[in-house]
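User: Here's a chain of 110 residues. Predict its fold as tokens.
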Amino acid sequence: MYPDAKAYRTILNRRVLESLNAHGDNAVVPHKLDHRVYLMAEGQARPFIDQILTLGFQLEGHEDNGDGVTVDFFRTDLLQNIDELTNELEDLAETFGRTYDGWGTEVITA
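Assistant: Prediction complete.
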């Protein structure tokens, strides 16, 4: 039996958190979290971007690569909230008929 999408996202989040921890990350410090979403067409990009901006994210860039549009954005958040955050972003991406690719961050040791 396979986990549903949200349970699988939680598994992926745990793997990233474990890797950060193994590299000495200070998990209680807010991190700049980079996110990526794939959209079908350029026409979806502006409404999606407007939505994430209202949620306090900043746009890093977006690109139409011929197969769709990649939107990169970020916000500073606590790692302890990553499951709720990724669920929210996954739900938002699904309202546009596309997928949330995931997140990344740098190790903070201070």
